[in-house]
């Protein structure tokens, strides 16, 4: 039995694939990840860690490669600075520009005009500084880009499992403010219907995932539930031998809350709906 649990998101869609053989209580994790459906291409950090791709979010780019914050600091390039922004350079007087050149050991010819100094500093920044990757506004991402990314990323990460997944559970999107997320829920469903028409697809309430870990009388807000999810998941992957191989992955991931949501939602389903 294979259960795929999906926590819906455009920039941070989390999924957890659970499977068992003969014992319903011995579900293990086969695949677990967070993907970005907003990017036209899914770039990754160019640096390998112990022979494997770095899974930290990318922050900077240089010469066609992308880097996370950790690995960018270890490269020879300079971190982005407001010193080199056009608005900042244009406000400076020649003396200030010369001080900036001295700070970065940039050679400036004597008696250079302000425009020439700015051009020299701009050229230096282009050749030696990282460029910060702009954050994407998910509200402006078109549905065609999202749909193509669903196909590309799910084919890439789940392709070998598509014929053997029994059930896909998707966090149900409710309320008028969730119109785009409701559309995304439908697009995800359609992907699996087209890939394997025998897959059972169910929509589940987001509140179910923590029911087995906190009492029904316990009132929590959104932030508290997120923190409880992370804490509960961390305890499970570090303390239960079935999940311990994923402990390092979870503890080092930037989006623990989304990973936890997909995992705990899957566990709840295996206990209460099978």
UniProtKB/TrEMBL annotation:
Task: Give one GO molecular function term.
Answer: nucleic acid binding
Gene3D superfamilies to which the protein is assigned, alphabetical? Ribonuclease H-like superfamily/Ribonuclease H (3.30.420.10)
Stated name of the protein: Mitochondrial resolvase Ydc2 catalytic domain-containing protein
Q: Where is the Mitochondrial resolvase Ydc2 catalytic domain?
A: 3-67
Instruction: Recite the lineage of the species.
Output: unclassified sequences, metagenomes, organismal metagenomes
Which positions, given as ranges, span the membrane? Answer: none
Pfam families attached to this UniProt entry: Ydc2-catalyt
